[in-house]
Amino acid sequence: MNNTGPKTNAQQASEEPIIRISEMHKWYGEFHVLKNISLDVMPKERIVVCGPSGSGKSTMIRCINRLEEHQRGKIIVDGIELTNNLKNIEKIREEVGMVFQHFNLFPHLTILENLSLGPVWVRKVPKKEAEETAMYYLEKVHIAEQAHKYPGQLSGGQQQRVAVARSLCMKPRVMLFDEPTSALDPEMVKEVLDVMISLAQEGMTMIVVTHEMGFAKSVAHRVLFMDAGQIVEQNAPDEFFSNPQNERTQLFLSQILH
Ligand SMILES: Nc1ncnc2c1ncn2[C@@H]1O[C@H](COP(=O)(O)OP(=O)(O)O)[C@@H](O)[C@H]1O
Ligand SMILES: [Mg+2]
Fold first, then answer.
1. pLDDT in tens, 188-205
2. I need a labelling partner for 136 at 20 to 30 A (CA). Which of 70, 111, 212, 234 fits?
3. Which domains are delineated in the chain?
4. Which atom of ligand 1 is nearest to the CA of 51?
5. SS3 of 125, please?
6. Which residues have CB under 6 Å of ligand 1?
7. Run of H or E including 194
């Protein structure tokens, strides 16, 4: 056993949270939407966030890449604190990819153009290289043959897989998903979840807002339950589902599982 030798970078990295939210509050005007949120996410950790509509799930994850601004407390991503410093916001957005319920692809651009746009314009990657990267990720989400089509020619499930690939082209270290399957027809949910499962297997750090409890059980290390702007309860999936502690969690689970 060699546990006294120098640590590798990977070992060192795995000991520090990649996301650290502490005592964070947010208001929309007078409305106190997030109340004292504290959450540490370790590299490669996979967290599922659930809770009733309006409980603040979207707002919380949108604060992590500054799509929304918090007013109190701290958010630190990979050692960089989120403040009004635009350089830092840019750096954090490079590390944190996001997939939304609606895929927001540009309808007048092909799939390949949708994917290479960000790297070419934001990252100044040469076009040819950006397209090679795009094809690599389109293969990964099993949709390379659609590269030259327009979004409108693809099904919802295919478009959402394109949206995942588009995020991956920016080489993020963390992926945030905000109800990525809830706008899809039921028969398309699995193809998107399968792509997320393979991302998980490759070790991506993920925070996923979803009510897909099968996904939570098989993929999450931790499940958080939010209600009224607070993290009410969190646990490993087995415990979370078999033995919820808070009565609001119990009520929520009884509603969605039956
Ligand atoms: N831009 C906004 N301005 C004012 N209130 C908002 C805004 N966005 C969301 N809210 C409110 O904040 C609460 C939390 O919303 P949200 O984070 O979207 O919840 P969830 O994702 O859990 O459904 C809701 O009451 C919602 O109406
Ligand atoms: Mg939401």
1. 999 999 999 999 999 999
2. 212
3. 36-255 (3.40.50.300)
4. 22
5. coil
6. 28, 31, 33, 51, 53-59
7. helix 186-201
